[in-house]
Every structure is written in structure tokens, then in C-alpha cells.
Amino acid sequence: xxxxxxxxxxxxxxxxxxxxxxxxxxxxxxxxxxxxxxxxxxxxxxxxxxxxxxxxxxxxxxxxxxxxxxxxxxxxxxxxxxxxxxxxxxxxxxxxxxxxxxxxxxxxxxxxxxxxxxxxxxxxxxxxxxxxxxxxxxxxxxxxxxxxxxxxxxxxxxxxxxxxxxxxxxxxxxxxxxxxxxxxxxxxxxxxxxxxxxxxxxxxxxxxxxxxxxxxxxxxxxxxxxxxxxxxxxxxxxxxxxxxxxxxxxxxxxxxxxxxxxxxxxxxxxxxxxxxxxxxx
Amino acid sequence: xxxxxxxxxxxxxxxxxxxxxxxxxxxxxxxxxxxxxxxxxxxxxxxxxxxxxxxxxxxxxxxxxxxxxxxxxxxxxxxxxxxxxxxxxxxxxxxxxxxxxxxxxxxxxxxxxxxxxxxxxxxxxxxxxxxxxxxxxxxxxxxxxxxxxxxxxxxxxxxxxxxxxxxxxxxxxxxxxxxxxxxxxxxxxxxxxxxxxxxxxxxxxxxxxxxxxxxxxxxxxxxxxxxxxxxxxxxxxxxxx
Lengths: 281, 241
Description:
The complex is a heterodimer of chains A (281) and B (241).
Chain A: H1 2-14, H2 17-41, H3 66-85, H4 90-96, H5 100-107, H6 109-142, H7 158-162, H8 169-174, H9 176-204, H10 209-229, H11 237-240, H12 252-275
Chain B: H1 2-11, H2 13-31, H3 47-56, H4 58-72, H5 74-80, H6 83-86, H7 92-124, H8 128-133, H9 135-163, H10 166-186, H11 207-230, H12 234-239
């Protein structure tokens, strides 16, 4: 039953206007700057090109690509809202239309809430993962994967790219494509968990649809501002979803705490709704 | 009707939550005033300007004050999108004008509350006289900010009505206000919308153009509001909220 419900909710998500709008906006925000970057580089001598990974959006500011500026802005402003727009308001909508009772009587509470939670997570994950991976693949298709290094510091100084990478350094140096792919997954997992946080809010609080979607985003923005004010730049959520290229002092434990905290809240909320807070009738 | 609306607005849980969050945000600097340096626009700030920047400059305005303002506006949408309220008006023009007036009052209240927090903090650190000395700038920016927040509200209502989704209305309005920050980072030309909230003493030379621009946008969106409301099916809107 869980699988059937998952498929049904997934199809529902793919047909939703909110999901499509947020997804295509994210896709355009990643793809258009990537294409502009490729057009700018077109015709340049191959010796003047850095390897494709140096132009990825997450390599903020070092390569001076337009994509990196857009990705930075996306992570700062749009990321928490788009991931919540994917499918987080599903339970709110069903409750509003009074159809949740009919679904629960046929599917059971566990299958109903678990399938919604899984689809919400998947929606948030795909919202970040697909645009970032597609933009990277576009760059990899157009720019050589390895550059002809005639001079060690030209066109980019590798020391600049590695200055703040104080963990997984070997991995970053020798397998950069895999390294950035892992970070795509980390960012997407955090996106999925933020979407799930929105869903958890809709399970417990009687707030409107707008607040269900925006509360985690507002917390994300406010947390960034407050941590910045206290000089804790390395702990701001927007710095933890990208590789530590430009920000000093980022430690893996911060990402672990963020992911672990979100996971615990989401897990407890969904299980609590299934086994403790039975308030549908 | 406006009186009953304002009564509801002050008792709404969104208003109380926003009030508490703003108070907590304001409290941070009481324990460590040095944190006000970061949201400031330059280096070595004077306390009274850093105190002002802590509420109105780019970082604070975009990451805290405007998102909270959007939450604070939710009772406005609850009330005015209620179908029984819509049908109490004789025509859509009267309905829209009442919404604009309510938006103006709400914006004025919100900005005034921010100024109260700012002045209390200044008085706590014995810096109040700076605001009296520079009263002309703060009075001008106060009126400009009321106009800017009213514009934010009217744009938010307009885009939400157009897309029939509050979240999309917020996204478009917030994006327009965040555009100047994004443009400064990406290298695009500015549109000076955020400037009307994050107004600085060095911007005084173009105060009147910015005010005029804000009021012009406001007028344009009020006119667009009239046009779009006439074509709208309010019953359908109430169902598909």
C-alpha cells in the first residue's frame, strides 16, 4: 500500500502547478547562466580554459562565472522556498478539501503520512539536485574536463580553489567531479529535509498555506542573518549546502548537526503524527 | 468595517508572533552592541547609524524585516479574501480602495513599531540626542519607508490576486525588492526599490527622486489593482485559496 500511495502522491506532485513553477524557475536559474558562461568562453584558446569543474556554480567567486553568482543568490534567497513549494502543502490542501479522512480510511494512517513525507522529501531533493546536476553536465559537455596546464597558476591558481577546503582535501584535489557531485547530494538532502520540515509544520499547526511553505524559509534567512551578525559565517545554512571554497572555518560537524537536527525533527514529527497525535476526526 | 478589521488584526496570532520576534531581534544588541557593525553599510560606523542599519539596511531588511512583514500581512489576506467581506462592498473599486487604505495603515504601524524599537535601543545606550540632531534625515526616511512598505503590500496583494497564490505573490514581490541586492552582486543595473527601505544619509541628495519613484510605482499598482479586480471571480478565488 505504501508503494501505491507513494506512486499516487508522486504523480500528484508532478502535476501540481506550484511544483512545476518552482522546478522550472530553479532549472532556468541554473541553466541560463551556465549557457551564458559557455557562450562567453566560446572561441577562447584551449590553454586559457580551466577544467570544467572550475566553472561549476558552487565554486563561488573564484572562476568569476555568472553561474556562481546566480547559484549564490539561489542558495541565499530561493533555495528554502522552492524546496517547500514542491509538495509540502499536500496535507494542508487535503485537510482543507476534507479528503484526507477518505484516503486514510482506505490506505491506513501510516501509509498515508509516510508516502506524503517520502514524496515531499523526494520533491525537495529533486528541486535542487536536477537543476544543479544538469547545469554541471552542460558545462562538462562544453568545456574540457582537464585543462592544458602550461603554467601552474594559469588560468586559475589551484591554491585559491583549495584555500578553505580543510576536510576531504585529497578527495577535492584528485576527484573534483565526484567531490562536487557529493556536494550536490548534500545540498539536495538538506533541501528535501527543509521541504519535510514545512510538511511537519502542516501536520501540527493550524496555519495558512503561505505560512506552511514560508516558515522554514524565513527561519533559514533569519538564521543566516543572526549567525552572520554574531560572526559565525561558517555556520550559516547557505554556506553548509555548498563546498567550503570561499568561506573560512567550515567544519563537517556543522553540516552533520544541520542534517541530523532536521532529520530528527522531521522523523519525530511524522512518527508522532502516525502513532500519537491521531486527530483526523 | 476598517475598525473591526484593525481590531482583528491586533488580536491575530501572526501580529503577536511578529511582535515577539522583532522584540527578540532587537534585544540581541542590548547584550552586545558590537554586533550592529555587520549590518552597517560601511566601516567604523557611528552607533546611531548602525542602530538604524540593524533594522533597515539591506541585510536586515531582506533577511528579517521584509519576510516578517509578509507574515504580519497574513490577517489582511484572511480578512479581505473572505467572501462574505468581499460581498459587503458595493463595488470592487470601493473594496480595493479599502484594501489600499488598510495596507497603508498596516505599513505605517509596522514602520512606526520598528522606529520605536530603534529609539528605545538608542535611549538605552544614551544615544537618543543623535536622532534629534539628525531629525530631518530620520523623518524623511520614515515617510519614505512607509511608502515603500505600502508599495510592498500593494504589490503583494496585486501579484497574489493575479496568480491566485499567496506564495507566488510573495515570491514576485520579494524578488523585486531583493533585485537591487542581487544586481549589486551580479553586476546588473539597479532599480532602486530596496533603496527606498534602506535609505542612507549619503543618499539624501536623491531623496525626492526615490520618493517620487516609490509613489509612482504605488500609483501604477493601485491602478493595475482596480483593473485586475474587476475581471476577477471572487467566489472561485475563495475556494481555490
